[in-house]
Amino acid sequence: MGEVVADLEGIHRRAGTVAEAGSDAQRAYIWKADRVKITEIETIPLRLPFAQPFKIAQGADRESIETLIVRVRTDEGIVGIGETQAWRRQGSAELLWNLVRTIKDHFEPLVTGRSPFDIAGILATLNEALYNTFYAQAAVADALYDIAGKAVGLPVHKLLAGECRDRVRVCGLLAMKPTIGELMDSAQGFYDRGFRHFGVKIGVDPRQDLANVAALRERFGDRVVLRVDANGALTYDDALALLKKLEPYDIDAAEQPIAIWDLDGLAALCRATSIPIMADESVSTDHSLLEVIRRRAATVVQTKIAKNGGMYRVWRLWALASAAGMRIYPGNHPSTSVATAAVAQLCAAWPGPLMEGVFAVGVSGALGADIVMEPIAPVNGEIKVPSGPGLGVELDEKAIARYRIDR
């Protein structure tokens, strides 16, 4: 068979050749691909602008986001990419340079020389070395999946479970605005682009929150699905009072209305309001999701690539949530097309129902720039799942050079 070639076109060509040659050649090809070894992890810290100031309940307006791209290199020249963010809010205190040092100083020595196909084993090693460092682990984990897909010429979803869908409907995220008029302009823009599901940020001024939701329902009627998200900013009493007032407006879910540690409060809200409660910041590990399930603290769960440690662990969370009868809300911090593609690959492989999540918030208009050659963009409120090998996206080196902040 010869060596597994480094360039993507060569990989496609070789995969096609062995497929035509029959099962013996295919077995030899896969055996050779499995001998690929990791040689290096490159970290690429970026600062990307928001298209407009991005405001959630906690913290000041954000003008930019700090994103970390990793490239995992191999001895056969196959390179995998993954993404994470330093998204500081309740439940995350990550700094960009902490992520870089964690990956370079601690993770790289542990993975060098190992097979990129050993995803579960590598992640167990990384978590044993630095427990719960999911934001750092996420980018490495997804880069390993990217390598595996490229090595055999298949998109990641076909390695995970096959293709259950090739398009995924997504939710438009309405960040906080100074006036109702500005919020309505943002919502109308999403609606005109085919979005029929809105996530509305709440949690600073309950009266304004109520007025915003009322205006959205009046404008769009039952043509849209409305969800609200407080990012854990409300007290129990304030959350209960606001949710009771929002009940007449047919809210599909209320995301993380109170602090991440108050699972008893979330459970009490589940019993006190007809609006389904979604856990987001409260769920980082499978253990934390099990505790949410045990206490009946939510009936919906949101996952994120960075928060939950990448595709491998997100898939585990979805399996647990599905077994418990919870609805699954695929999410992300504002991300480039790299992390967006990772969630899209998971969605394509998942055989069960999925809510219209906010995993594409970055590429739906929140970010003012992307870093791949062919950016993912919603069409009629849907994301087309990338069909190329691995994650299906390729870095744009000019964009990387423009937004990189370590050189």
Give me some keywords for this one:
Enolase-like, domain 1, TIM Barrel, 407 residues, 3-stranded antiparallel β-sheet, 7-stranded parallel β-sheet, 16 helices
Unreliable residue runs: 1-22
Number of helices: 16
CATH architecture label of the largest domain = Alpha-Beta Barrel
Query: CATH class of the largest domain, please?
Result: Alpha Beta
- Give the class from helix and strand content and strand pairing: alpha/beta
Order of strands, widest sheet: 5-6-7-8-9-10-11
Evaluate the radius of gyration.
21 Å
- The beta-strand count equals 12
The domain tally reads 2
pLDDT averaged over residues: 92
Our estimate of the beta-strand percent is: 15-25%
What is the CA-CA span between the terminal residues?
41 Å
Characterize the structure shown.
With 407 residues, this protein is α/β, with parallel strands linked by helices. It folds into two domains: 8-26 and 37-154, Enolase-like, N-terminal domain (Enolase-like, domain 1, 2-Layer Sandwich); 160-401, TIM Barrel, CATH 3.20.20.120. It has helices at 8-21, 23-33, 96-111, 119-129, 134-152, 156-160, 180-192, 206-220, 236-246, 263-272, 286-295, 305-308, 311-323, 337-349, 362-366, 397-403, and strands at 38-54, 62-74, 79-85, 167-169, 172-174, 197-201, 225-229, 251-255, 277-279, 300-304, 327-331, 382-384. It has a seven-stranded parallel sheet with strand order 5-6-7-8-9-10-11. It has a three-stranded antiparallel sheet with strand order 1-2-3. It has a two-stranded antiparallel ribbon with strand order 4-12. Helix 10 (263-272) links the parallel strand 8 (251-255) and strand 9. Helix 11 (286-295) packs parallel to helix 13 (311-323). It starts with 7 loop residues before the first helix and ends with a helix.
